Amino acid sequence: HRQRIIAIEKDRMIGQLAATISHEIRNPLTSIRGFLQLLDQKELPLHDQKRYIELALSGVDQANTIINDYLNYAKPSNGLQEQLDIKEELEATLRFITPLATDHQVNIEIIHETDDPLFILGESKKLRQCLMNLVKNAIESMPDGGHIVLRTCKLPDGVQISITDTGVGMSQSQLDSLGMPFYTTKEQGTGLGLVVVMSIIKMMNGKISFSSVLNQGTQCSILFQQK
Ligand code: ADP
Ligand code: MG
Question: Which of 38, 64, 156, 218 is the most exposed place for a label (fewest CB within 10 A)?
Fold first, then answer.
């Protein structure tokens, strides 16, 4: 019975989220349309042309971010649980995100504390989406560049991934707000990245925790328990 209630709650939440997402994507689309109309005028000074193009492009980026952060996850899962080596999953995520890191003058170091593979059961796509969102946040927390350490290790009760940045950090009240839909402190943020992260980790029976010091940095740890 309890499971059923949870399932209904979850459906309702996803439904609500989907409605809000459509709205969130419509905003940048409306503004892109507006700027394209403005561009469609005779004898528009060149600097206005440039400005409208830039604004339209930033609308495209905004819509794209929402799709990356949320809609990838909204796709139904294929339900296939495979053996995943968290070391490989982290390496794959790193390869994918390196261009963004380089753009932001961020260098990323990866440390595997053991040579053994660290297997868990899950869906590679989902885990990578989750790691992507976390590393992206770490990069975005360092507007003047910085350093990220990605670490994997074996603990007595399971395997752990941690992501440590030297960024702006968070206050206690910010930490308490993490994972609330649409909670963001960024001008171009969606506040959806961590909603997705937390729901994936929950689905995989993992535990995620954050510790942070303002102006020094943040550490995020994910533990996958094993018996
Ligand atoms: P978004 O990145 O679009 O803002 P997220 O759900 O990914 O949405 O993150 C929500 C908020 O959590 C961010 O706006 C930021 O305030 C805070 N946050 C998340 N990760 C970090 C981090 N590594 N360092 C500092 N703040 C963070
Ligand atoms: Mg984010």
Answer: 156
